[in-house]
């Protein structure tokens, strides 16, 4: 990040000139495409090229962010030994969660999803992508500067990433063990970065399943209000 960047307006470089009918068709096509996105825990051994992962993360990097500070970092892991370490540490945190840290209400809410402390997908998936939120930034001379709307910005970028992975024909699963500070030490990330999510990425196994409850989406009228 450079200290002395001043405002300079540019002509809008990209425009979509669609008719009203074309806009609706595109919107409906996107809905149908995203309805085919599933959170998958069972992965095939089929590899995924580094280039595909790079391009999906490149898409995530185009997300809007507070003051355009882009307060995120992604670590993509394919090394089996590192994935094994991530799984071991994550399962230790998950075991504490399921042994009582979560509370009865939270555990009951998870029952229809069928989750547990065992996370074999963290090793089975060809890639793990760790999402880090940067709590502050540093200029080239090492001085700190504040980031703004970090959770919101990183959340948007993560949404872009999940969409890009789906668009590339891959499946994914978001995982958020708590706490996740072990990832900083394991991956040699600085103190200003907070790990917020582990995303398993790959192709679904032939025997892959999804919980029926996961397909129960709220109808549009319950998630949308208009003021016209």
Can you describe this structure?
This protein is an alpha+beta fold and 228 residues long. 38% of the residues lie in helices and 15% in strands. The protein has helices spanning 20-34, 50-60, 80-101, 104-110, 121-124, 150-167, 182-187, 220-223, and strands at residues 72-77, 127-134, 136-138, 144-146, 171-175, 193-202. The strands form 2 sheets. Strands 1-2-6-5 form a 4-stranded antiparallel sheet. The termini are far apart. The model has no long low-confidence stretch (mean pLDDT 95).
Outline:
The chain has 228 residues and is an alpha+beta fold. The protein has helices spanning 20-34, 50-60, 80-101, 104-110, 121-124, 150-167, 182-187, 220-223; strands at residues 72-77, 127-134, 136-138, 144-146, 171-175, 193-202.
Whole-number radius of gyration? 20 Å
The count of DSSP E runs of length 2 or more, i.e. the number of strands, is 6
Order of strands across the widest beta sheet?
1-2-6-5
Largest sheet: 4 strands, antiparallel
Cα separation of the termini = 42 Å
Give the overall average pLDDT.
95
Approximately how much helix is present in the residues? 25-40%
Which structural category do the helix and sheet elements fall into? alpha+beta
Shape: globular
Strand percentage? 15-25%
Unreliable stretches: none
Identify the notable features of this structure and list them briefly:
228 residues, alpha+beta, 4-stranded antiparallel beta sheet, two-stranded antiparallel sheet, 15% strand
């Amino acid at each position: 990040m450079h200290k002395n960047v001043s405002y300079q307006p540019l002509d809008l470089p990209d425009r979509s000139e669609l008719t009203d009918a074309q806009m609706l068709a595109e919107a409906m096509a996107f809905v149908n495409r995203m309805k085919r996105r599933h959170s998958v825990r069972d992965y095939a051994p089929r590899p995924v090229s580094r280039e595909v992962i790079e391009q999906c993360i490149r898409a995530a990097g185009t997300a809007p962010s507070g003051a355009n500070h882009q307060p995120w970092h992604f670590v993509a892991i394919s090394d089996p030994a590192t994935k094994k370490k991530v799984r071991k540490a994550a399962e230790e945190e998950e075991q504490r969660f399921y042994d009582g840290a979560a509370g009865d209400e939270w555990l009951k809410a998870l029952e229809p999803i069928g989750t547990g402390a065992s996370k074999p997908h963290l090793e089975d998936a060809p890639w793990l992508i760790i999402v880090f939120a940067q709590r502050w930034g540093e200029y080239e001379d090492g001085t700190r500067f504040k980031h703004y709307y970090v959770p919101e910005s990183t959340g948007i970028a993560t949404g872009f990433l999940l969409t890009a992975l789906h668009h590339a024909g891959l499946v994914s699963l978001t995982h958020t063990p708590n706490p996740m500070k072990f990832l900083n030490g394991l991956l040699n990330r600085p103190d200003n970065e907070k790990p917020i999510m582990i995303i398993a990425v790959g192709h679904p196994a032939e025997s892959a399943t999804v919980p029926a409850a996961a397909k129960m989406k709220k109808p549009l009228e319950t998630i949308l209000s208009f003021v016209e």
